[in-house]
Request: fold
Amino acid sequence: MQRVNSDLTKDLKKFGVQEWNECFHCGNCTAICPLTEQGSLFPRQAIRQIQLGLKDSLYRNLDPWMCYYCGECTETCPRDANPAELMMSLRRYLTSIYDWTGMSRRFYTSNYWEFGAVGAIAALIIALFVVFLPPAAEMFNNPQAFINDQGGVMINSMVAGVGEARFIRLIELGDWAMAVVVAFFLITNIFNMYYKVILKDKTLKVPIIIYITEFWSLIYNFTTQAKFSKCEKKTYWGGHLLLMTGYSIMFALVVAFLPLFQTETVFPWYHWQRILGYYSTFGILFFLAYVVIGRIQRSDFKFEFSHSTDWLFIIMLGLTTITGILVHIFRVTGLPVATYITYIIHLAILFPMILIEVPFSKWSHLAYRPFAIYFFRLKKAVVAKQYETKLAPAA
Reply:
């Protein structure tokens, strides 16, 4: 038995939910969606839970994560209830529910909180570097002191009084510290999701063997985003896959292999370091260009509605990529002042983007979605097993 929450709809509006009450459950959205399957007939179940104020049931509902925002349901809805955008808004809401710190709710419902947090982290990064940069006169009057034999800027010699090895070590420690913080919040939030969806459901007892046999689905869906392929329009899936793989490669290079990636030596274009960097840059810029042009032109349904956090994510990712490209250009052309200043700006955008977007905002969806599919398959496997047991003849 559940308590009806009359304030649920008011709360959901803060996350972008608007036309939920226009739905009269004709079933058209469920019938036309290429992603619905037995046990997950979205988006009708979530809409019904909203209308009835069933907050606890909505917490356990994985349907919003099963939706890949194809938009076919909204395009054919006779009531203009916009079910696809509602599912997107519910993903924001559920992200705030899984987040035990409450930061996701603050970032999604208050621009002051999100912009303020980004600004504060960026200011801290800039302040740390400004204190230790070589004097401006030295960089302008003797730029050759910061250029190696190949004519490239020595990126790891930018801090006064700190040698190359120590500088790269300090940056690497900063990267690892950031990664540990992000991993802690993201993993604990995912565990909170698991608690609300699986453990809190007293009717569900998942055997260990099912956790093991279904684990492949988590890895498969995270690495391929394969459910996108069921949508009629494949372009978004391809762009999304380029973005995810490009960003994942760049994140691994910067965090796990920084001493191999950020070197004083400027390698030829065919070196693995530069090829991976070019692929990551292309993947991110391709998707960003596709999304930005689409949102400006409103050329497709999925680009007609934008939450402020969507734009902040796009802008920060774009600026991170562009400043990274400029650092590379300034390095190889032997411009130390431009290289160092751009590098600081690059880190001042990169750090808050990762610290905020990955565990608390838009990037967290890349983790929640495959885990939601995994949890859904656990539930489905348990139900199937119970059904088989029920039909089995008595001994």
Summary: The chain has a mean pLDDT of 85. Residues 255 and 296 are 34 Å apart (CA to CA). DSSP finds 19 helices and no strands in the chain.
